[in-house]
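ARCHIVE CARD
CATEGORY: sequence design from structure
SOURCE FIELD: tokenized fold
FIELD CONTENT:
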């Protein structure tokens, strides 16, 4: 699976489960907030950061949500 597909799956998981421990872990790791990712601002920021992240970071986040 390529990076873009992983980013899409991570974002879909976070949107479907914004209060989960996995979503909060991804939020803490990538944007520095462990708060709920229900807010559009946080989701937008997370998407932008994931798009710019290196493959290892995306892989780590994908592992967290898997």
């Amino acid at each position: 699976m390529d990076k873009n597909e992983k980013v899409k799956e991570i974002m879909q998981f976070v949107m479907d489960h914004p209060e989960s421990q996995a979503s909060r872990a991804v939020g803490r790791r990538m944007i520095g907030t462990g708060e709920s990712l229900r807010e559009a601002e946080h989701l937008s920021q997370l998407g932008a950061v994931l798009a710019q992240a290196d493959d290892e970071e995306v892989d780590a986040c994908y592992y967290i949500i898997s």
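CARD ANNOTATION: The helical segments are 3-16, 21-31, 40-52, 55-65. The chain is about 75% helix and 0% strand.
SHELF: design records, drawer C
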